[in-house]
Design a protein that fits this description.
binds magnesium ion, 7 helices, binds adenosine monophosphate, alpha+beta, six-stranded mixed beta sheet, single chain
């Protein structure tokens, strides 16, 4: 059995064959850049007004108004000392503009502008290049494209961006006891929920589950199902059947499909019987079937691989240190992820921690991590993963 850190290192060190696509800007959100972006020009590329008001030439308390410049006016205006033009936010300021005076700080009498504040040179002018200079590196390859990044890239005039492709993910759930939500349930059966939770977790981080299927605990069916999905996937997620029960056929079915085991069993709770393997460029996680185990393994181990595959430089969820909202006595000697709720700068560990229960994960928003047994008082800081 390996440690969480060893598992993370094995995942991190995988060589991954990535591919890239040039996508239209509007379809790049949530992808990782596969190129460096540099600024093709100074941003802004011309001195412009930060306010609706008046562009003035020279320092004075009155000016003659000689014209008007709306945003988007591309002609070349120039001001003489003592003159002013009406100007609007974003409009190019005329040559020889000393400052822009806000319209709220001025008064107009016919064609004369009276200023009700001291005019300071350069005020309310957004200078050419003050956000970025031509040639500045804006984003390195591997950068995550957020909505604001899309906005910035668009403001640089770029309509296409080279990004890493996202992995092709498929999900198999296994178990004789499982029926689909919506079906009529008999005693002894339960609703299959892991594939839905995994599909949703994938979507939440910008990944698509291409296809999913359910297979009963039958060795040859599992072996054939895995063979079929391995062919078509970059990352295959399998739920259930990876533990030590007589009906847990997944590990053997993976072996017989030529999947090389990279690790099996991680010293953690929940999620100990986690399996990770690869066949050529296809990776397989076999996740324990208990709902909280399966989703915890997704957040802790699967997500980093998905991100690496997508070209990310840094992976995983945000960890914070935050005060506990109550005393807590952790008796688990195995490193443990506890379902928790972060609220108002403190964290509360929730009831119903069993790995078979997903309720506390559904009502919480975090996992508190303990490396070993510890007795903590309210207010002590604990490592918390925001999910
Ligand atoms: P297994 O890992 O197959 O031994 O399953 C462990 C526990 O998780 C059992 O109680 C299963 O009924 C439950 N389980 C397995 N797969 C799922 C699933 N897809 N949805 C909900 N519960 C599951
Ligand atoms: Mg099972």
């Amino acid at each position: 059995m390996i440690s969480i850190q060893q598992a993370a290192e094995i995942i991190r060190s995988q060589t991954i064959k990535r591919s890239v696509t040039v996508r239209p800007l509007s379809e790049c959100s949530g992808f990782y850049l596969a190129e460096e972006i540099t600024s093709p020009f100074d941003l802004p590329s011309f001195d412009n007004s930060a306010m609706d008001g008046y562009a003035v030439c020279g320092i004075s308390d009155r000016y003659d108004i000689v014209g008007e410049i709306p945003a988007g006016d591309t002609s070349d205006h120039s001001l003489e000392p003592g003159k002013a033009v009406r100007i609007f936010t974003g409009a190019k300021v005329p040559n020889r503009t000393t400052a822009v005076v806000m319209q709220e700080k001025s008064r107009v009498n016919g064609s004369v502008l009276h200023i009700e504040e001291t005019v300071n040179e350069g005020q309310n002018i957004r200078q050419k290049g003050y956000e970025l200079a031509e040639g500045d590196s804006v984003f390195k390859s591997g950068y995550f494209i957020s909505p604001a990044s899309i906005g910035l890239i668009g403001s640089l005039g770029l309509d296409k961006v080279k990004v890493f492709n996202k992995p092709n993910v498929r999900v198999i759930s296994t178990g004789n006891e499982l029926i689909q939500p919506g079906e009529k349930k008999r005693e002894g059966e339960i609703y299959e929920s892991n594939s839905f939770a995994l599909q949703s977790a994938l979507a939440r981080f910008g990944f698509n589950c291409q296809e999913k299927t359910h297979i009963r605990d039958n060795f040859s069916a599992i072996k054939t199902g895995i063979a079929d999905y391995l062919e078509q996937s970059d990352i295959l997620l399998i739920s259930g059947g990876i533990s030590v029960g007589d009906y847990d056929f997944v590990k053997q079915a993976l072996e017989e499909n030529g999947v090389e085991e990279l690790f099996y069993k991680v010293r953690q709770k929940p999620g100990k019987p986690l399996y990770f393997g690869r066949r050529e460029n296809t990776f397989v996680f076999a996740l324990p079937g208990n709902p909280a185990s399966s989703l915890t393994c997704f957040y802790v181990h699967v997500l980093p691989l998905l991100q690496l595959f997508s070209g990310a430089k840094t992976t995983g969820l945000q960890h914070i240190e935050i005060p506990l909202n109550h005393d807590y006595d952790n008796r688990s000697d195995r490193p443990i992820f506890l379902k928790a709720l972060v609220d108002h700068q403190t964290v509360s560990i929730l009831n119903r921690q069993s790995s078979s229960m997903i309720h506390s994960m559904a009502t919480g928003n975090a996992l508190v991590f303990f490396d070993g047994q510890t007795k903590l008082r309210k207010g002590e800081r604990v490592e918390t993963i925001l999910i």
